[in-house]
Amino acid sequence: MPPESQPGSFLNRPYFITFEGLDGSGKTTQIQRLTAWLIAQNIHPVVTRQPGGTETGDRIRALLLDSKSAKLSPRAELAMMFADRAQSIEQVIAPALASDKLVICDRFTDSTEAYQGGGRQLGSEIVLDLHRLICGNLQPDLTLLLLPDLASSLARARSRNNSQAVATGVDENRFEQERNSFFQRVYEKYREIAERETTRVITLEGNFRISAVHRQIIKTVAQRLGLKNS
Hints:
The chain is of the alpha/beta class. It has eight helices and five strands. Strands 2-3-1-4-5 form a five-stranded parallel sheet, sandwiched between helices. The longest helix has 25 residues, at 74-98. The protein starts with 14 loop residues before the first strand and ends in a 5-residue tail after the last helix.
C-alpha cells in the first residue's frame, strides 16, 4: 500500500478522476504521466480501468473484447459493462474514496453511453437509468475527454491491438472490427456528453503532442485540486 499524502499536499477528501475517449486516443499514456506527476506531489492515486481492474472484471473484459464474442447482443454487452462496473465500484473505487483517496479510472459510464448508447444505438436513457440503479449514480469529480482526430485514433488502436495479439496471444480486437460509422456515432456521443456535462467534462480535442496534452491535463488537475502547477 503506497504511503498517504502528507498534510497540506491534498484536499483531505476523496477525488474521482476518469479518462475517456476512443481507443487510440492516448488515455493510457496520459494516465501514466498524470500518475507520475501526482506521486511527485506526494499524492498516491488508486489507478484502475473498466472493463477490468478486478479478478471478475478481467474475466468480463476478456469476453467483451475478444473477437470470438462477435455475436454478443448489444443489450448483453451493456449488461456486462455494468456488471463489471458494479464490481469495480464495490471492490476498488468505493473503498478508495471512503479512505479519502484520489482515484483515476480509465473509462467509466461515459464510455458505456458513448459505445453502447451511441455506437450500438441503444440511446442514452437506458445507460443513465442503469447507472442510477446499479452504480448509485456515482459521478466523477473530473472527466478528461481526449478527442484527437477520429481516423488517427482508429489507426493507432487497430495497429496496437493487432501487435498485442501477435506478441501475447491476447485478442482485444472485437470493437476495432466495427465499421467507421460505429466509431463516428461514438465520437459524436462523446461530444454530446461534453456539451451536457460542462463542469465535469474537460475536452482536449485535436492532434496535439503527448507533452502538450499532458501539460493541459496537469494544469486542469492542479487547478481542481488547489495544487501548484510545477
